[in-house]
Every structure is written in structure tokens, then in C-alpha cells.
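Example noted here:
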Amino acid sequence: MALLEDITLTDSIEIRTTPEKVFSFITNLVDDNSYRVWHPDDHVSLRWIRGRPWEEGSVACAEEYLHGRLHRMRFTVTRVVPNAEIHSAPASRFLRRYFPGNAFYMEKRGDRCIFTATGTLRVGWLIKTFARKKLDYGLSSVRQHMKEEGENLKKILERCGNSRTAGTDDESTPHDN
């Protein structure tokens, strides 16, 4: 029996836009205001504390609500493939043992983009055995948050009619100030 088991949560949504516009939206999440545009109910703050936003090796701190509780996360961007994928992991090596990482994938499908968000965590048998209800509740909350982020991204990019991308002065999309 493995000491820890990987659980990967995945959510995908089809958006009438290009991978380039989805990538631009994500990479223009650079501050509190732009971060809140994506999920106004749950996203609180985003600060880049090392490096340039969304470049490999950059470190950010984000605050967001999950299952009704505020969570503070410090993450490192670990891999970027322009217009295709962005990977991140907790900045703490200790936390990476239990939360190996998250990723965003942008896949062209005809005139649309399939946006997929994934998050992996490792859970031990003790938690699965003695805290199963709490684990299931937490996983359900994260799944719901991922689904809402995808739906919000779709609304934002499709509402813009694909004529605008992130980085414009339109208040419905993130931008640098």
C-alpha cells in the first residue's frame, strides 16, 4: 500500500475563443483587481513577490476563499508553454509533497479553445480512513471552485466578443495598472 495516493481534480470547458486569448487572460492576472475579475466571489488578492508575472521561476501569493474559508497560497510558476499551458506548484518544498501542482491547458479545437484546469494533491490512508467526510467536502469545494473559474472565464472571453483580450481598458477583463 502506497503511503500517499495522488488525487487529480480536472475541469474542462469549451470557449468560443483562441488559446492565445485564454493565455493572454491568464497571464494578465497580475494584481488584486485583475484576479478578482476572474472570480469576484472567491478571489481576494494576488501579489507577485519574485520575478515577472507568469514567467518560469516567478513566485506569487494569492488569497481566495475555498469551502467558505480564506486560504493564502504562495506558488511558483514551474513551466510555461506560450498559448498552450501554465504549471505552478507551492513555493514550499514541504507543501509540494502534498500538493504537487496545478496546471492550466489551452487546446485549440476548430475555432474554439478547450480550457482545462487541473490540481493534484496527495492524501495518506489515515486521512482517507478517518477523515473521509472532511476530505470529500474539501475536494467537492475545490471542484466547484474550478468549475466556476472555467465558467467565469468563458463568460468573460465570450462576452468580449473575442474582439478584446486581457490587457485592455475594458473593466471586464484584467489589465496592468
Q: What stands out?
A: The helical segments are 19-27, 32-38, 93-96, 125-130, 132-159.
